[in-house]
Amino acid sequence: MYIFKIAYDGRYSFQQQPHKETVCDKILEVFSDILKERKIIYSGGRTDKGVSALGNFVVLNLKEEPNIRYLNYKLKDYGIWILGFKEIENIPEVKYRHYRYILPNINYNVENIRLAAKKFIGKKSFHNFSKKDRTKNKSPIREIYSIDIKENSFFLTIDIIGKSFLWQMVRKIVGALHLVGKEIKEVEWIDKLFKTNYKEGAPTMPAEGLILVEAKTDIQYNYDKYIINKFKHHWEKEFYYKVMKVGISKTVLELCPGGAEETHRAG
Hints:
It is a single chain. This protein is α+β, with helices and mostly antiparallel strands. The protein has two domains: 2-92, Pseudouridine synthase I, catalytic domain, N-terminal subdomain (Alpha-Beta Plaits), CATH 3.30.70; 96-213, Pseudouridine synthase I, catalytic domain, C-terminal subdomain (Alpha-Beta Plaits), CATH 3.30.70.660. It is built from seven helices and ten strands. Strands 1, 2, 3, 4, 5, 6, 7, 8, 9 and 10 form a ten-stranded mixed sheet that branches. Strand 2 and strand 3 (52-60) form a beta hairpin. The longest helix has 31 residues, at 225-255. It is globular. The relative contact order is 0.17. Mean pLDDT is 92; it is low at 261-267.
């Protein structure tokens, strides 16, 4: 067996589907010539369409050692990258999963968000923070190890670390923080959402703001510097042009007629 550390840009959902337009389906398609069995044996996390990843992983059973540069060449048009790999004998344990949400910093009470975030730490019932999956009967009990919030003038970076997560749980946690930050809900409202007899769903924030930073194991991956440099170059280009658009959007909001800047000049 081989484990592959993978990254992707969110254009596909992760789990295999009949339409075959998923991260797993694209990987199986590209690996088809060297697969012993056409399936993903194990993975670090399932993500919805729109969610990106930097540190997910898949385990495959192969006939031979893969040519990572060739496979990346085949995958690049799908927005999928193999960053590292290693041959393994056993499925690794996931120590924790680290998700990051990027929340545009527009008129939030950040101190309220930080106070509310503390209420998620520990082992609790997250029944109000997941999309119901009728095909599975999963316990809503989950443990959050930490939530860290950093602020700049453009966005809030919300880092959430835990052992495992329910479907859309991270996006609903951020949805609850969003309501508290907008002062639509009080900080103490979060406490109600953990009561087993209390039912009130938290809103699901857009998938595009979420990235799976790491599904952490003890695996020491083999990395190819050429691949890592190509991967970084791709995202540097993305960053360059996206920051331009962010700056233009902020300029429009600040300088549009009747905006903050014009009101200041008029005064």
